[in-house]
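Dear H.,

Thanks for agreeing to be a second pair of eyes. The structure we're designing against is below in token form, covering all 481 positions.
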């Protein structure tokens, strides 16, 4: 690709920001290149992501040592400038050794808690292609923000799995779901350690000097930064191919012991569950699938990491659990392919994935969605503080509150009752199709549901997503009817 090293404004009009001397009377004024914003204006997390450029691809090339948790690496970011830039930011926490922009050494400084400010040697112009090469190192498990790290060190390795902050501890990025990109992720580890990540392995793990092995993973569909992941440690990897030829990669931590069989019995059903989801939500959006059963000393949640969810060990304690597999795979449509435009729209992820579990219950003959609704509704007394959290605007500290999941699923059930099954099961795939690989807001979803149903759904959405207190079910249904 051609490198554009000129600052067009300067050549045409003299000193940026100043009136150029011209012979035509009216001075030409060019704006001086500005710093890229330190955030994308997310209501809950204003400094997440960065302004002024758009990333197309991350090439994350790492070396990890489980014995020390030392991570060293080089990430190459391919991006396009969306404005003239004097500086731009990356979201990142480890120690940056150097940054090059289109081959030229840049200077860097830090700002805020997770911002690296990059000053390129040459001004960047709008539309310019950028190749940003960042070399770095650090111990992610010891790199704390408010006492917290999104990188989990384990006995045998590590998990880079967290939401909404995950990338900060392992690759510099434009860390917001508005800026999706493709990924090549490669990690060198001591031979005998496994590395699992998103997508497919373009080639098998290859031996390197020093008794090490390099693992390479590739994701070819647009991916939000928080949905890229690493699982490093002792895993049994089981590969397969779906009837339609799609590669399946499942991985089971060897630390699971007695929990192992339940983990396998659950994650092995991913293909069946993805097919069932496809029947309701439309074609599966990605090129591969699977699941990772994380280690006993790892995470206490599950995450819909793209093409390959990661599950904490707790889900297997009462035996096989297909509901969590349904939840995380439903997120592949709602969360991963269609991502939130801002974190306050988290209901579009968690409400939908939770309602998928209710539909699965119905499918399994373990209770209809209506029966699950009645049970969940009754399980929160009217004076429970659960009803004070608004699923449509839960607050930055409550994006994973039970209300977002349970009242969120209740909302979709009320929508289904209001519009009828025909419209409801047209709305869900339409949402997945119309925003495929993109982003969405609650207002956009409401508009789509109104378009397909022909109903004014404002009362329903206001009552269920944006009003504190337990809605009266009978009256909610009556209003919408
Ligand atoms: N999206 C995840 C889920 O499906 C939520 C994980 C939240 N927990 C966390 N520690 N970040 O439930
Ligand atoms: Zn979820």
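And this is the sequence the design step returned. I haven't edited it by hand at all.
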């Amino acid at each position: 690709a051609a490198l554009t090293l000129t600052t067009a404004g300067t050549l045409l009009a003299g000193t940026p920001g100043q009136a150029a001397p011209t012979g035509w009377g009216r001075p030409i004024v060019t704006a001086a290149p500005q710093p890229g914003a330190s955030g994308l204006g997310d209501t809950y997390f204003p400094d997440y992501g960065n302004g002024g450029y758009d990333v197309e691809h991350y090439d994350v090339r790492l070396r990890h040592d489980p014995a020390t948790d030392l991570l060293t690496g080089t990430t190459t970011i391919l991006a396009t400038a969306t404005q003239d830039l004097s500086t731009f930011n990356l979201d990142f926490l480890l120690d940056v050794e150097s940054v090059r922009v289109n081959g030229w050494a840049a200077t860097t400084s830090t700002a805020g808690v997770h911002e690296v400010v990059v000053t390129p040697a040459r001004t960047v112009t709008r539309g310019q292609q950028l190749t940003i090469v960042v070399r770095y190192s650090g111990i992610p498990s010891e790199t704390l923000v408010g006492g917290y790290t999104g990188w989990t060190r384990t006995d045998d390795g590590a998990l880079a799995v967290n939401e909404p902050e995950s990338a900060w501890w392992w690759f510099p990025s434009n860390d917001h779901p508005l800026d999706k990109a493709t990924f090549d992720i490669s990690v060198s580890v001591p031979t005998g350690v496994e590395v699992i990540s998103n997508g497919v392995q373009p080639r098998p793990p290859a031996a390197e000097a020093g008794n090490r092995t390099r693992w390479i993973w590739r994701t070819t569909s647009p991916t939000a930064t928080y949905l890229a992941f690493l699982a490093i440690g002792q895993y049994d990897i089981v590969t397969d191919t779906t009837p339609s030829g799609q590669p399946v990669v499942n991985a089971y931590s060897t630390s699971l012991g007695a929990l192992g069989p339940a983990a396998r019995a659950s994650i092995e059903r991913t293909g069946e569950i993805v097919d069932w989801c496809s029947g309701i939500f439309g074609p599966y959006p990605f090129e591969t699938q699977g699941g990772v059963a994380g280690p006993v000393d790892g995470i206490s949640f599950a995450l819909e990491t793209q093409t390959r969810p990661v599950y904490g060990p707790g889900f297997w304690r009462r035996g096989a659990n297909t509901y969590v597999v349904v939840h995380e795979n439903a997120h592949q449509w709602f969360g991963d392919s269609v991502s939130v435009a801002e974190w306050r729209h988290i209901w579009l992820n968690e409400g939908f994935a939770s309602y998928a579990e209710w539909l699965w219950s119905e499918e399994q003959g373990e209770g209809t969605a209506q029966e699950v609704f009645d049970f969940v509704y009754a399980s929160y007394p009217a004076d429970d503080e659960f009803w004070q959290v608004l699923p449509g605007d839960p607050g930055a500290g409550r994006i994973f509150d039970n209300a977002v999941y349970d009242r969120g699923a209740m909302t979709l059930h009320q929508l289904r009752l209001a519009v009828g099954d025909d419209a409801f099961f047209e709305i869900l795939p339409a949402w997945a199709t119309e925003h495929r690989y993109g982003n969405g807001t609650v207002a956009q979803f409401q508009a789509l549901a109104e378009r397909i149903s022909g109903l004014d759904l404002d009362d329903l959405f206001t009552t269920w997503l944006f009003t504190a207190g337990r809605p009266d079910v009978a009256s909610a249904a009556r209003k919408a009817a």
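Two observations from my side: Confidence is low (pLDDT under 50) at residues 1-23. The pocket of arginine (ligand 1) is lined by residues 162-163, 301-304, 327-328, 331, 353, 400 (CB under 6 Å).

Warmly,
E.
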